[in-house]
Design a protein that fits this description.
There is one protein chain. The protein has about 300 residues and is of the alpha+beta class. It folds into 4 domains: about 110 residues, 2-Layer Sandwich (Nucleotidyltransferase, domain 5), CATH 3.30.420.40; about 50 residues, no CATH class; about 70 residues, Alpha-Beta Complex (Actin, Chain A, domain 4); about 30 residues, no CATH class. About 25% of the residues lie in helices and about 35% in strands. The protein has 6 helices and 16 strands. The strands form 6 sheets. Strands 1, 2, 3 and 4 form a 4-stranded antiparallel β-sheet that branches. Strands 6-5-7 form a 3-stranded antiparallel β-sheet, covered by helices on one side. Helix 4 crosses helix 6. The protein is elongated.
């Protein structure tokens, strides 16, 4: 009997156990560059590409005209305004003003105004224009996601806030969503269709044809749509390209330069102006299984209702 109980216990223990796979992110911060890598289950280590499609980002920050720049943008600023750009700062962390690394840094970068107290491991790097960016000033970042048929965007503010709990003051990071917006009609398909219509107009102008004659021809429009898809990819990295379509209609080809153009203006609102509605059933004493419709995220209600 004891063996059967032990066997059942082991059976349920192994059947209820599960393996949880997680991804690990590592950040390598050097004096000149930084890299970020991600290791996912079943996949080799991948070094993340930055906005410039590079695996390493210059570890430099610059302050100019009331704005803060980082990475390649700060590196461009350092070429013209070296006194407003700061790099190789790791050697200064936790050092006294009279320490050897700080003295060496001042010798290498004499245009920086660095002060501090010899009694404390804290130094100050002064900006020539007196600009002051402290940790309480929020940093606003725009996140956007464009798909084939819709686009969404949100503005988030990152900052450090001080809270007091149990008599101790702590500094914790905080994220606040400042604005959210979306468009269910703006996407890659909309761009491709407008490029197709643009190619149809170019073909009509080149061959002295009526635009209605071209748009009513389904084969011609399908050929232009295919070329528009190719142009969309090329124009995403180039400002101008040549469109070429053989035998658009009546054995006539199309060959014309195409430049980037504005597809549609997109605004990020300060609040969610597009309501999200949900329907659910709720059991009540008077009316069992009552159908209730609730509207979430409206202009006057920025947060979802709890009930």
């Amino acid at each position: 009997m004891a063996k059967k109980i032990a066997f059942l216990f082991l059976f349920f223990a192994f059947s209820c156990s599960r393996t949880i796979a997680v991804s690990v992110m590592s950040v390598d911060i050097g004096n000149e560059f930084m890299k970020i890598a991600i290791v996912s289950p079943g996949k080799p280590m991948e070094i993340i590409l930055n906005s410039d499609s590079s695996r390493k980002t210059p570890l430099i920050v610059a302050f100019r005209d009331g704005e803060r720049f980082f990475g390649e943008a700060a590196l461009s600023t350092a070429t013209r305004f070296p006194e407003k750009s700061y790099t190789f700062l790791l050697d200064l962390i936790g050092k006294h003003i009279d320490s050897a690394p700080v003295k060496l840094y001042k010798k290498r970068f004499p245009y920086h105004n660095i002060t501090g107290e010899s009694k404390h491991s804290q130094i100050y790097v002064h900006h020539p224009e007196g600009m002051n960016f402290n940790e309480s000033n929020p940093t606003h970042v725009l996140f956007y996601d464009m798909g084939s048929s819709s686009t969404s965007a949100s503005i988030a503010a990152f900052q450090l806030v001080k809270t007091k709990e149990k008599g101790y003051v702590e500094t914790n990071p905080q994220v606040v969503i400042k604005g959210v917006g979306f468009d269910r009609t703006l996407g890659g398909l909309e761009m491709q269709l407008r490029l197709r219509d643009h190619l149809a107009k170019l073909f009509a102008e080149q061959r002295n044809k009526k635009l209605e004659t071209i748009t009513s021809n389904k084969r011609a429009m399908n050929k232009l749509l295919k070329e528009a898809g190719r142009l969309k990819k090329v124009l995403s990295a180039n400002t101008e390209h040549v469109a070429q379509v053989e035998n658009v209609m009546d054995d006539v080809d199309l060959k014309a330069p195409v430049k980037r153009f504005k597809v549609k203006t997109f605004h990020v609102k300060e609040a969610n102006i597009y309501p999200i509605q949900v329907e659910f059933t709720r059991t009540e004493s008077e009316q069992p299984n009552k159908l209730v419709q609730r509207t979430l995220f409206t202009r006057n209600n920025l947060y979802p209702q709890k009930k």
